[in-house]
Fold:
Amino acid sequence: MEQFLETFFSWEHFKQSFPSVVEGFKTNLSLMFVAEGCVLVWGLVLALLRSGRSRATTPLRWLTVGYIDLFRAIPGLLVIYMVGFGIPIAQVPWLSNWSLYQLAVLALTLVYGAYVAEVYRAGIEGIHWSQTAAARSLGLSQGKTMRFVVLPQAVRRVVPPLLNDFIGLQKDTAFIGIIGVLDGFRRAQIYAGTEFNLSSFTGLALCFVVITIPMTRITDHLLKRDQQRMRVGGR
Amino acid sequence: MPEPPFLELRGVEKRFGDNPVLRGIDLTVAEHEVVSLIGASGSGKSTLLRCVNALEPIQAGTISLQGTVVSGKGVDVDRHRRDVGIVFQSFNLFPHMTVLQNVTLAPRQVLRLSRRQAEERADALLERVGLVEKRKQYPDSLSGGQQQRVAIVRALAMRPKLMLLDEITSALDPELVAEVLNIVRELAHEGMTMLLATHEMSFAREVSNRVCFLDAGVICEQGPPEHLFTKPTNPRTQAFLKRIIAAGRL
Structure:
């Protein structure tokens, strides 16, 4: 038991490794926010391509469906590895000059965009057709109906499942160490490797917990406030 | 050359899959005329209105407004809908927008009015229906009657040439029906051209110039209300009105 506690919860090792782990975690943190921004946009683009009705976009729609199926099936770790190592070797014009950090953003966006597209789509399809009918009957185009009537309602409804995917994304930022980014995971690993103690990882785990849990609470709070505003009427 | 009818439907047919809903509708509505569609549920009243607004494509026939064909392929439906307002049974206000935003959305986005112009127009209309003090509220905080009045105002804000009213009082508590019908009555007096589907027989009788009885996707009989309600000639109209009277609705 003592050995167990010493391995994972050694105060000495924790103290020694924590500053370095936090330094690395800052990379995870910035990666989270940048990737989440990209995912929100990319997921929306995919969802709109997929929910399009016109016949002209049918091939594009099938491509999108294929993309979404594919990237939800491949483990995120694999995509990060293939993008992070493959793209520089493959000498893709423009892309190959990207930094590892940028490639990590790309990989996470590719994977989580597929998840988030499905979340958006569920939200869009959940809006009753009578809302679309009302907007179209006023002369609003399909695009404006989507932008002003359907999407604002859909996004409000999908915030909880969206957040769920974001928590997944945040945790997956720990994978970027494998392509050589010196993030929290890499630094904790280096410490554990030299000192033969995993308290550095406990510190890293703490970092993830401290970031993720308050985020869910804040979102719940914002959602509730928004719903109340609509129910009771503005001031 | 005679002027084309204001609204003209010729041989309009509509099917949902294999299920025919409209089976050859011929109908004209003159400018400033108020025409009521009556008939049992499922007779095609609502579908007819939705077709006039191009919310439903039709399979045969033509619909034209002021001589311009507005049904079929290649029609700019968004342009057409600017001229035709519709009010739905279930209000269909946008729940994430305030009353004012609901009313100004289309004038701003479709007619490209400035925010100020659109709000002035909205306020004037809301004032008329007695709801200007609710302008910053969200639909959920309003009664059904108030919501339906906002929905009427939202359609009127586009200054349509024709208003379609689809059983607009059917979802309302009885004590709220009057406040909505009063607005329709006023619109009729001002000369708004209206085509309405309704179950309110006494209202249809009072407000319309002409009443059409629909049964199984065809107009069985039409005529001035005093004629259609008192001495209908078609046996199906007679049977329908008998049921309505037995239910105490006329």
Remarks:
- DSSP finds nine helices and ten strands in chain B.
- The mean pLDDT of chain B is 94.
